[in-house]
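Agenda item 2: alpha-D-galactopyranose complex prediction
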Amino acid sequence: MRATTQALIAVVVFVFFLPTTHAQTGNISEGLALTPPMGWNSWNKFGCDVREELIRQTADAMVKSGMKDAGYQFVVIDDCWQVSRDKEGNIVADPQRFPSGIKALADYVHSLGLKFGIYSDAGSKTCAGRPASLGHEYQDARQYAAWGVDYLKYDWCNTGTQDARAAYALIREALNASGRPIVLSICEWGTAKPWLWGKEVGGNLWRTTGDITDQWDGKKDGSLGMLTILDLQVGLDSFAGPGHWNDPDMLEVGNGGMSDTEYRSHFSLWSILAAPLIAGNDLRNMRPEIREILTNKDVVAIDQDPLGREGKRVRKDGDVEVWAKELKDGSRAVVLLNRGSAEKQIAVRWEELGYPGHLSALVRDLWQHKDLGKFTDQLSSPVAAHGVVMVTVRP
Ligand code: GLA
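Presented output:
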């Protein structure tokens, strides 16, 4: 009898406390990334060549270039900052490349009014072969929180037979238990369809594809160019929303493999997709044209629209595509995309935007920063080869 009573009490205590603990830890990460995260990450340009001066100088440049004013916030060190674990199993930053330590670096980034991000991996080693977090999830999360980390990109190399959903749920639990709100960037490349479970496990963004390469279209060797990645986003829009975003990978704008026209297309398309806008170029040495692309506030506003809808492809005729995104005020952002190598006339009909044709709507060109006037039924415009025209259509 006594044993039964004890068992009963144990069950009651368990049932009573378990949901409370969950609710409390769950709240810490609530309200993160209500619009797609904006920032910079070292990987696309610098790969493993990361060191503390680069991170400090990049944070400085983010402020000086006007990127911070345009909404960029996170400064994220990708792979290769870590070299080993100490006797207690604590992760150790490369002492040669980060002599002042990660905490000092995070403090510096914070002193500029920016946020600080770092990288790890769910497996035994990161993609670059550095120590990863398997078996150290809670310890690492505590360490990140102590350093002042605001954003964790968590990769998927060397994970063997691990279950992706469980691994990302575990790191989210660990991050929450650290007591610090930390954005969780799931980097699983789309293999286990993270759009189906990323939100539930508390991921704030999830990669939908393999790594982007700095080229307009993919090559026969399977490398993913910007348009290849764009095509892979079709059909995923319904999974995105405030706090949880599809991530078609970081920006290549300014890295040299595409023309300025193509980079303008890349940036416009990522914005209409409500993609995280994580610059991947050298912010310390930007041509004015590149800075103007990354800081185009009219285009950034489409990405950051508080309704949080991801845009969709509403028409594809060969090389001609029309993409549209619903905005909070009821208007639409539209990208007319010309994938071909000659200029083309491209039209969008109001009915393709969910409006009646007779509706009179004000059209604004977001690259010319100019109101084009009122239009009914449709807008038709010449679009340069590999270029876009990006507008808002406001009834
Ligand atoms: C993977 C990721 C990249 C980058 C590298 C680092 O390939 O997808 O974005 O983080 O690992 O090694």
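Discussion summary: Confidence is low (pLDDT under 50) at residues 15-26.
Owner for follow-up: CH.
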